[in-house]
């Protein structure tokens, strides 16, 4: 397993009735359903967290940051996430212990799981590829130290 | 003498790996794979435990983890069940609940007193006089019971995991194994769980059944192992059923919570003991226990034995005993008809229509008196015969392991032909198979497993089986004038106890359970409930179906407390300034999940005084990033706040802040904070640290309810904040920003740059008249904080923790919600009338406040000083007395270094709440301390 706490990962949070249209105008494909996600050609992640709330991470976040001017029914959601990348053979057992939902890759294809893990609110997605599943887990950055220690303790 | 048999086909022990262990101070040998019971029995030990109440000697009963005859302790864990506890090298074990050891337990004298100690005796004997009840309770608790908990036992972390599957099959016998295979072959993801160390169930020990234990079992196991979609959990049991098919599996290492789409209960049946005098003597065991000893552990159950027969299983037990070299003295058959010709060798005496009237022996079985009987419990003693023997195998019937079905909501019916409760109707997604369904015999069990699996997958099946005939004897109980014919082995309940309960009027199954405590021991009635129901049915002269059964609630099998606790996650939050605090000698304290600096420096008292002085005479900095922080945007945001809080916000000027008081529907204070209006359609709101999550939840709930066009963004984690307070605070801030802070000196708010970072600055005077709260994105707060610390280095600026903060706000006369208020405090009591907008048509709690306003106040929050403070100050929560009666309590108290006196907040009688009036505080040492009501803020609490 590898894990990283990365408060500074460029993340662009957006909320409001006009959010989806504004993102589409910027040429960004959007997941159709709430709590789903997709990958952009530049490997940026687009997570739809609700009907009118989005989180974008990766190069696209930097681009949007540079052109952001705000607008009616269009609100920034400042992000301070701790993000963890989980991969390796111990990860299924780790996830089985910290959360109650079914986190098998086939059970959560394309989904953003918003749930409690180890007692705190987190978001989880699973990317599948030739190297095996890679899970990305976000939590409020103020819980970052706690969750990092917690994951490590379980793995140890 | 060793009772170890030659190698048995399919035995569970490894004879090449042996080790020694100790039991009650003596050393014994065991093979790898032995349980403690099997190893001791193989060594010829017969007294393995003592009973709960009368301390009677006990040996093997079920050898299946279902009874509590043999419970052990190892110095750390207690109530370990020897039936299933694997022996490991060097183990040191003792039996629980003995006085003087398991062999010579002197409390066995209680057996002689049994006639005076019937069920329920303590209800009547010790409740008067009430004063003496604790005395008797103490004695009873010492004499009766199980293991004694060791409070110094180390904490062992057992993980709790979460599993998901399409089909969960509970029970790894023939029906369960086949159900798992059939379901998996149809593409389902299956979890198969069994309480035993190996799969097989009856296939593993009932050697005369069907094809025998070899080929069929091996084939099923191989197929299951080879199937990728079957996950097997052994030595684990499903201990309960919860809504939506959630079942906790309890295994040796911990608990797994399984959520399944379909549940197949193939949990089998518990073999039931017969009831006759001294039916608990070591050497008397269930037929299946004798078979387990032979087939699993290669242990001869006894030398010369008797089989007590009440069903077809008994013949197989007899044949197994013969094959194991046991001298079979007789088969005593409760039924009137002789066995089928040729089934039993002619040399074996079969007494059809006989019962065991009495077993004889002291610390082990020595013989039995068998008598002809009428099949209804009455023996003809005139024709009694004595049979010397050292063992009895009882095969008289079964009770379904149906606890999960009951808990799931299944309706059960009593099948008179099978003499067993079987499912009548099952809830959606729940299926039963095998013995729990009344289906006995190998071929039928396999077929029933297939039927259940197909049903679980929504596929049709032509299999339709009826419950087996006479699987259990309808009345395996024999009266005896001297009693000691035990129905419940857990709590030493005798047959006569049930008659007593009925006589006393406790003749309903639920009432009888509570009067006699049948089924309330650790076995939860696995070996007693069925016979108890039969007894009650007879006492009431009603069919068993009408008497019904009780439901063993989850967990129906004991679970180690550590398994329930799991890893115990305790979330901890750190503000972005946490690292800085650590580097500067902060001592931390918890506020909710947050770790906050309580003070800085090695000495608490000195640090707090210095921090307070810094704020009063120079400036201080405190991290308040833990506050709830919310943005409310939209044209109806003002309207939302107007309804949510008690004050006015629609007319609030841009660039100003207002106090925000939140009530619940009953008018009780639940939180307070600050609302800053930053634009026409943009408010920035803070909530207290402890209530941040609850306030956000309530905001979103109300937003849904009211349907207003407002967007709420929760910034609690992504924004950080600090407060700079004290006479030099403005000067220090002005050095880092171009904004004119005088503009906001009277409760204003502004968005500006501080130390080159975008921030929101508000004038919030919680700890000082001159103070600013700076809010900024979490990523940038450290640089602003550090810039201020650097700027303030030369003028005495200090960081301060929440201990100093609480003292500073007390000097200012500010209360803290949840500290100075409780779950009943309303604004009139807290002196917050001014915060209630009188002209609004609605805000949360307004209706309740209107009712409260018409009632006289009963208490009032006031400031006070102590003119003659004792060296040891009264604690918070000490009582305020008014003419000897309780009028209120102290909520905050401390010595103020600024004022040089003790100050505090307290609830007092309303008429006493006038500045200068005196009241009395009852000190925790019992003395009275005089206090004087003071105006707020306390005079001299400087800015």
How would you portray this structure in words?
The complex is a heterodimer of chains A (156) and B (943). Chain A is 23% helix and 31% strand. In chain A, strands 2-3-4-1-5 form a 5-stranded antiparallel sheet, with helices on one face. With 156 residues, chain A is an alpha+beta fold. Mean pLDDT of chain A is 91; it is low at 1-7. Chain A has 2 domains: 11-77; 81-155, 2-Layer Sandwich (Gyrase A, domain 2), CATH 3.30.1360.120. Chain B has 6 domains: 1-153, 2Fe-2S iron-sulphur cluster binding domain, sarcosine oxidase, alpha subunit, N-terminal domain (Ubiquitin-like (UB roll)); 160-270 and 400-456, FAD/NAD(P)-binding domain (3-Layer(bba) Sandwich); 285-395, 3-Layer(bba) Sandwich (FAD/NAD(P)-binding domain), CATH 3.50.50; 475-569, BFD-like [2Fe-2S]-binding domain (Arc Repressor Mutant, subunit A, Orthogonal Bundle), CATH 1.10.10; 611-801, 2-Layer Sandwich (Gyrase A, domain 2), CATH 3.30.1360; 856-943, Aminomethyltransferase beta-barrel domains (Elongation Factor Tu (Ef-tu), domain 3, Beta Barrel). By secondary structure, chain B is an alpha+beta fold. In chain B, helix 6 packs parallel to helix 7 (313-323). The longest helix of chain B is centred in the middle third of the chain and has 15 residues, at 442-456. Chain B contains 22 helices and 47 strands. The relative contact order of chain B is 0.07. The model of chain B has no long low-confidence stretch (mean pLDDT 94). The N and C termini of chain B lie far apart (91 Å). In chain B, strand 44 and strand 45 form a beta hairpin. The chains are: A alpha+beta (156), B alpha+beta (943). The interface between A and B is medium-sized, with 32 and 34 residues.
């Amino acid at each position: 397993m590898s894990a990283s706490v990365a408060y500074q990962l460029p993340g662009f949070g957006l909320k409001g009735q006009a959010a989806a249209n504004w993102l589409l105008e910027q040429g960004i494909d959007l997941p159709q359903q709430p709590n789903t996600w997709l990958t952009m050609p530049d490997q940026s992640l687009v997570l739809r967290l609700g009907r009118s709330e989005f989180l974008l991470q990766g190069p696209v976040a930097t681009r949007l940051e540079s052109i952001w001017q705000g607008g009616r029914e269009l609100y920034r959601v400042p992000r301070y996430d701790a993000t963890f990348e989980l991969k390796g053979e111990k990860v299924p057992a780790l996830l089985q212990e910290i959360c109650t939902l079914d986190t098998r890759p086939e059970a959560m294809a394309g989904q953003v799981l918003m749930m409690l893990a180890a007692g705190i609110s987190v978001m989880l997605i699973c990317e599948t590829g030739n190297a095996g599943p890679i899970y990305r887990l976000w939590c409020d950055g103020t819980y970052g130290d706690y969750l990092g220690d917690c994951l490590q303790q379980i793995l140890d | 003498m060793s009772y170890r048999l030659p190698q048995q086909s399919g035995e569970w022990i490894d004879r090449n790996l042996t080790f020694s262990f100790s039991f009650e101070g003596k050393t014994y040998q065991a093979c790898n794979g032995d349980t403690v019971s099997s190893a001791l029995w193989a060594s010829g030990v017969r007294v393995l435990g003592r009973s709960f109440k009368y301390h009677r000697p006990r040996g093997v009963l079920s050898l299946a983890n279902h009874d509590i005859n043999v419970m052990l302790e190892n110095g750390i864990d207690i109530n370990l069940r020897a039936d299933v506890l694997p022996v490991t090298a060097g183990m040191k074990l003792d039996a629980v609940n003995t006085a003087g050891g398991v062999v010579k337990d002197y409390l066995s004298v209680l057996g002689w007193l049994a006639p005076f100690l019937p069920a329920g005796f303590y209800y009547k004997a010790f409740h008067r006089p009430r004063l003496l009840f604790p005395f008797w309770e103490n004695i009873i608790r010492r004499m009766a019971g199980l293991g004694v908990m060791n409070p110094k036992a180390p904490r062992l972390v057992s993980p709790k995991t979460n599993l998901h599957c399409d089909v969960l099959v509970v029970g790894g016998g023939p029906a369960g194994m086949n159900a798992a295979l059939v379901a998996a072959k149809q593409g389902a993801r299956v979890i198969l769980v069994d309480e035993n160390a190996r799969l097989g169930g009856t296939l593993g020990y009932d050697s005369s059944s069907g094809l025998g234990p070899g080929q069929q079992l091996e084939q099923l196991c191989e197929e299951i192992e080879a199937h990728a979609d079957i996950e097997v959990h052994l030595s684990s049991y499903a201990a309960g059923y919860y809504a939506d098919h959630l079942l906790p599996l309890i295994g040796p290492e911990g608990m797994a919570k399984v959520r399944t789409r379909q549940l197949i209960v193939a949990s089998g049946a518990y073999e039931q003991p017969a009831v006759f005098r001294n039916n608990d003597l070591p050497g008397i065991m269930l037929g299946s226990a004798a078979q387990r000893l032979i087939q699993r552990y290669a242990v001869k159950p006894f030398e010369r034995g008797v089989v007590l027969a009440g069903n077809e299983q008994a013949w197989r037990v007899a044949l197994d005993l013969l094959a194991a070299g046991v001298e079979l003295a007789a088969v005593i058959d409760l039924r009137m008809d002789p066995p089928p010709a040729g089934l039993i060798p002619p040399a074996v005496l079969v007494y059809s229509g006989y019962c065991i009237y009495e077993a004889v022996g002291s610390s082990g079985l020595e013989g039995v008196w068998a008598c002809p009987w009428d099949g209804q419990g009455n023996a003809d003693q005139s024709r009694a015969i004595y049979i010397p023997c050292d063992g009895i195998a009882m095969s008289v019937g079964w009770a379904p392991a149906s606890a999960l079905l009951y808990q799931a909501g299944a309706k059960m019916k009593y099948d008179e032909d099978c003499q067993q409760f079987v499912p009548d109707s099952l809830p959606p997604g729940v299926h039963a198979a095998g013995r729990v369904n009344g289906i006995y015999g190998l071929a039928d069990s396999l077929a029933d497993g297939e039927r259940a699996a197909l049903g679980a997958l929504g596929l049709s099946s032509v299999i339709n089986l009826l419950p087996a005939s006479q699987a259990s004897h309808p009345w395996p109980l024999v009266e005896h004038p001297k009693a000691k014919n035990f129905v419940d082995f857990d709590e030493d309940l005798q047959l006569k106890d049930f008659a007593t309960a009925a006589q006393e009027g406790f003749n309903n199954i639920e009432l009888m359970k509570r009067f006699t405590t049948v089924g309330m021991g650790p076995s939860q009635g696995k070996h007693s409930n069925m016979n108890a129901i039969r007894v009650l049915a007879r006492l009431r002269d009603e069919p068993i179906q009408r008497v019904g059964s009780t439901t063993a609630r989850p967990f129906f099998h004991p679970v180690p407390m550590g398994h329930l606790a799991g890893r115990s996650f305790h979330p901890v939050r750190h503000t972005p300034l946490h690292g800085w605090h650590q580097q500067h000698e902060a001592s931390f304290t918890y506020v909710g999940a947050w770790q906050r600096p309580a003070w800085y420096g090695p000495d608490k008292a000195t640090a707090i005084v210095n921090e307070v002085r810094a704020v009063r005479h120079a400036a201080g900095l405190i991290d308040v990033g833990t506050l709830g922080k919310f943005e409310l945007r939209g044209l109806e945001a003002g309207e939302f706040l107007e309804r949510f809080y008690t004050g006015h916000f629609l007319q609030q000027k841009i660039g100003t802040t207002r106090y925000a008081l939140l009530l619940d529907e009953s008018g009780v204070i639940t939180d307070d904070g600050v609302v800053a209006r930053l634009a026409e359609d943009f408010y920035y709101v803070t909530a207290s640290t402890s209530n941040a999550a609850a306030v956000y939840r309530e905001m979103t709930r109300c937003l849904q309810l009211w349907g207003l066009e407002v967007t709420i963004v929760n910034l609690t984690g992504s924004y950080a904040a600090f407060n700079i307070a004290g006479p030099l605070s403005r000067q220090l801030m002005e050095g880092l920003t171009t904004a004119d802070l005088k503009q906001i000196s009277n409760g204003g708010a502004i968005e500006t740059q501080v130390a080159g970072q975008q921030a929101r600055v508000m004038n919030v005077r919680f700890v000082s008249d001159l103070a600013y709260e700076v809010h900024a994105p979490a990523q940038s707060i450290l640089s602003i904080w550090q810039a201020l610390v650097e700027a303030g280095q030369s003028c005495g600026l200090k960081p301060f923790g929440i201990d100093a903060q609480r003292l500073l706000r007390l000097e200012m006369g500010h209360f803290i919600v949840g500290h100075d208020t409780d779950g009943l405090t309303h604004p009139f009591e807290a002196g917050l009338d001014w915060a209630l907008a009188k002209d609004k048509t609605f805000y949360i709690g307004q209706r309740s406040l209107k009712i409260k306003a018409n009632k006289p106040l009963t208490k009032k929050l006031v400031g006070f000083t102590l003119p003659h403070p004792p060296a040891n100050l009264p604690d918070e929560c000490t009582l305020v007395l008014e003419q000897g009666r309780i009028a209120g309590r102290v909520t905050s108290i401390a010595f103020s270094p600024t004022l040089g006196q003790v100050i505090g907040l307290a609830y007092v009688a309303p008429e006493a709440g006038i500045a200068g009036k005196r009241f009395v505080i009852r000190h925790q040492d019992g003395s009275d301390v005089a206090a004087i009501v003071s105006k707020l803020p306390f005079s001299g609490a400087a800015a």
